[in-house]
Structures are given as C-alpha cells and as structure tokens.
Amino acid sequence: MTRLPVVSGREVIAALVRIGYGVVRQRGSHVRMRHPTDTNRRPVTVPDHRTLKPGTLHAILRDANLSVEQLRELL
Questions:
Q1: Structural domain includes residue 1
Q2: Closest CA to 20 of 7, 9, 33, 32
Q3: What is the pLDDT of residue 39?
Q4: Quick one: residue 7, left, alpha or beta (phi over 0 = left, psi -120 to 50 = alpha)?
Q5: HSE on the CB side for 16, CA within 13 Å?
Q6: What is the pLDDT of residues 32-69, one digit of tens each?
Q7: Does residue 41 fall inside a structural domain?
Q8: Confidence (pLDDT) at 1
Q9: Among 37, 64, 65, 69, which has the minimal tally of Cβ within 10 Å of its Cβ?
C-alpha cells in the first residue's frame, strides 16, 4: 500500500479541479465540490486546512474514486 502524501486542503482542491470537479459552495473552511458529469465520482467536502489528516484524505479519495498514485500525479 502506498503511503498518503501530506497535503493541504488547497492542494487537494486544485487536484480535484484538474479532473473536472467544480466548487459548489463554501461554508467556513469547508469547500463542497461536485463532478458535473461522472456519476461514479460522489460529491466531496474538502476542509481548507494547512494539512489534511490521513483519514480525511482517504475519505476524499474514496468518494472521488481516486487512488493515491493518481492523486500524486495530479499534485
């Protein structure tokens, strides 16, 4: 298993935008994102924090249907 990278919320948001996600809304430090066409990719909420905890990042990757390797390529 590949280790999760240490990333910020803004880095994850930028990576998700590269694969087609768009920002739907933001409430406080939480950014809600949705992919407009791909139904396999669920809506995700990304906290805009300096570093994301491993469990939070893992949940975002699972909902966005991304692997750790794919995330590394997008960063």
A1: no
A2: 33
A3: 79
A4: beta
A5: 31
A6: 999 888 878 899 999 999 999 999 999 999 999 999 99
A7: yes
A8: 56
A9: 37
The answer to whether position 67 is within a domain reads yes
Domain that holds residue 33: 9-74
- Does residue 3 belong to any structural domain of this protein? no
User: In this predicted model, what pLDDT tens digit does every residue of 5-15 receive, in sequence order?
Assistant: 899 999 999 99
Q: Can you give the CATH number for the domain in which 32 is found?
A: 3.30.920.30
Tokens of 71: 């995330």
Residue whose pair of structure tokens reads 């906290």 in the numeric block: 47
The total domain count for the chain is: 1
As given in the structure block, the two tokens for residue 43 are: 């809506």
Under a CB-based contact definition with an 8 Å cutoff, are residues 5 and 66 in contact?
no
